[in-house]
Write a sequence for this structure.
């Protein structure tokens, strides 16, 4: 199940392919050189005091951004007494970059799953969100990728992910609407087949 709600502008298409993994080690010297060229093209003097270190700092930031921690480690713990408990983790805020405008988007992530016989280490949720955010993205694909990582971790489709995004490409350019927020939802397994459970997730996600 995929649902996208955008106010006041319609959401972009959700039919997006899975992107290739970003290159973890970029050539920061070459990036710095390109930033210097960009500054010149923008009418700046890259040798003036305030800009001397800028190309190097921008290159270092790109390297950090494209090299998030791995989300690969498996952190599940056996909890044999648990049967069908709803677990929701919220308040996970990550920054990513909109691939259409290369401007930041702030993504608030809430994820839920059904714990059956084992629990997922809670920090795993944040690590997955950080990992998927560290590349050029669209919110819809980010939501689907967080969902896919979580279903891999728990080995079932009983996962729901809600993301609320603030996009600078909507607030500092284009329609310039500061208050616009985009909400995306992806749910599977029991969240898809049990409307009461899905409503519980939505209610708890909205309250947090
Ligand atoms: Zn954009």
């Amino acid at each position: 199940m995929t649902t996208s709600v955008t106010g006041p502008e319609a959401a972009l298409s959700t039919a997006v392919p899975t992107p290739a993994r970003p290159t973890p080690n970029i050539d920061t010297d070459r990036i710095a050189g390109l930033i210097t060229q960009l500054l010149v093209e923008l009418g700046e003097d890259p040798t003036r005091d305030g800009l001397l270190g800028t190309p190097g700092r921008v290159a270092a930031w790109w390297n950090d951004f494209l090299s998030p921690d791995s989300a690969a480690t498996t952190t599940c713990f056996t909890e044999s007494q648990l049967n069908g408990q709803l677990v929701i983790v919220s308040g996970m805020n990550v920054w990513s970059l909109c691939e259409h405008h290369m401007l930041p988007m702030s993504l608030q992530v809430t994820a839920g799953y059904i714990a059956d016989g084992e629990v997922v280490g809670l920090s795993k949720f944040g690590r997955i969100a950080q990992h998927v955010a560290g590349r050029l993205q669209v919110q819809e694909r980010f939501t689907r990728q967080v969902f896919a990582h979580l279903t891999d971790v728990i080995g079932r489709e009983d996962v729901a992910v809600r993301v609320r995004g603030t996009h600078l490409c909507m607030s500092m350019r284009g329609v310039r609407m500061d208050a616009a927020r985009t909400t995306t939802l992806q749910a599977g397994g029991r969240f898809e087949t049990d409307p009461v459970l899905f409503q519980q997730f939505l209610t708890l996600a909205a309250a947090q």
User: Anything to note?
Assistant: Confidence is low (pLDDT under 50) at residues 7-20. Strands lie at 2-7, 76-98, 104-120, 136-137, 159-167, 181-187.
